[in-house]
Amino acid sequence: MGSTMELRPSRAAGRVAESVLPWPPLPPHTEQQLRQLGAADIVVGIPSYNNARTIGHVVRAAQAGLTKYFPGARGVIINSDGGSQDGTPQAVLEATLEETALVQAPYRVYPVHKLSLPYPGTPGKGSAFRTIFLLAQCLGAKAVAVVDADLRSITPQWIELLAGPVLERDFDLVAPLYMRHKYDGTITNSIVYPLTRALYGKRIRQPIGGDFGFSPRLVAHYLRQDVWETDVARFGIDIWVTTQAVAHGFRVCQAFLGAKIHDPKDPASDLSAMLAQVLSALFTEMERNAATWKSVSGSEPVPTFGFRFEVATEPVTVNVRRMLESFRLGCRTLREIWEPVIGAESLAHLQALACRPEGRLEFADDLWAGIVYDFAVAFHRRTVAREHLLRALTPLYLGWVASFVTEMQPAGAQEVEERLERLCLTYEALKPALISRWDETG
């Protein structure tokens, strides 16, 4: 039987609302750890699932960052694990912690993995964030940083860069800014960044980066939202935390963290489900925040912290031929789904592109941005069953990536950013047409 202890946010949190979502039972050892700690100034949260190979390095980097950059603060590392089967919790315990306190608390993932005391809630990364946020409230934390457990490039300074702007400059959200390979993060480059920038007017370069800093008032806002039992929490928590911050007027900034070294994938492989999940979260937030983004015009930079420097990135191999094959196959087989979504002129352009020889496909910015807006409106209107709609964008996205890779093959990092800037400006220029079509749906 689970514990009956009722944990409430610490009064040290000050601005934290007294009423939050119901707290599920905690394992007794977690409750005991919280009682012993009493309070904390900075919480570093590490969601994990089968990350035994890398999490020890992440824990040690977090501990070193707390010790070096915040020596007068009481730091706590919270590992929220989803029932790892590879020894991740033990790897956390074996990492050198010295004077830094550690709390381990489980969360559920999908599919459900049996835990000694699994607690209720929608499985997925969102449950890990919720766990970390609630425990941070209980401890009265003045800043919360969350970092991925599979990082190989994290350094102690990441903790300073993520928590410092919250503690010292009163920012609410610190988003990450990475140096990435030009073919890495193509979903972000083609859709997530330009769309969120055009909608909400803030130039946050990595809205789904995974590593963030949060203020206690923003944490309290998150916990009051009725989202934790939805697919957004399961699959789209990164974009959700960013969107909530910008849509509700919280102070946002970004911090340059250098390279994020992870295991990138060929954009043409194992993609459709991932793209559908990202799009679903994006478009769902568009519906919820329509009154806000329809009043936003243009965009503005956000403050950026950290010294920006050139850093080597891991190469990303892409299969342009396979992407083009997927694009052409979609043009032959998905017309029935595309016709009620995409305008006739755009469909004609797509058919013309599909007939071009390899290496000659050039996806115009206005065509691509217009298609993304077409799909957003169709999602809102439920023109096509949403699951089919979202997956039907995959071959179009692959066509854009093939065009981008071919065009940017000789380009350096600065040229790539300039190219993406032009794409973003096109999204912004086409936004009035999006608003007009959106309003027609009521």
Q: Can you describe this structure in just a few lines?
A:
The protein starts with 27 loop residues before the first helix and ends with a helix.
Q: Can you characterise this structure?
A:
This protein is an alpha/beta fold. It folds into 2 domains: 295 residues, Alpha-Beta Complex (Spore Coat Polysaccharide Biosynthesis Protein SpsA, Chain A), CATH 3.90.550.10; 111 residues, no CATH class. It is 49% helix and 11% strand. The protein contains 18 helices and 10 strands. It has an 8-stranded mixed sheet, with helices on both faces. A two-stranded parallel sheet has the order 6-9. Helix 4 crosses helix 7, helix 9 runs parallel beside helix 10 and helix 12 packs antiparallel against helix 17. It is globular, with a radius of gyration of 22 Å. The N and C termini lie far apart (49 Å). The N terminus is likely disordered.
Low-confidence parts: 1-22, 109-122, 264-269
The CATH level-2 architecture of the largest domain is identified as Alpha-Beta Complex
Number of helices: 18
CATH class of the largest domain: Alpha Beta
Q: Which fold does the CATH topology of the largest domain refer to?
A: Spore Coat Polysaccharide Biosynthesis Protein SpsA, Chain A
* Global Rg: 22 Å
Largest sheet, described in full? 8 strands, mixed
**Percent helix range:** 40-55%
Strands of the widest sheet, in order across it, are 3-2-1-4-7-5-8-10
Counting structural domains, the number is: 2
CATH-level-4 superfamily name of the largest domain = Spore Coat Polysaccharide Biosynthesis Protein SpsA, Chain A
Order of helical and strand elements? HEHEHEHEHEHEEHHHEHHEEHHHHHHH
Sheet-strand content, in percent, reads 5-15%
Q: How many β-strand runs?
A: 10
- The termini sit apart by 49 Å
Briefly note the structural class of the backbone.
Answer: alpha/beta
Net shape: globular
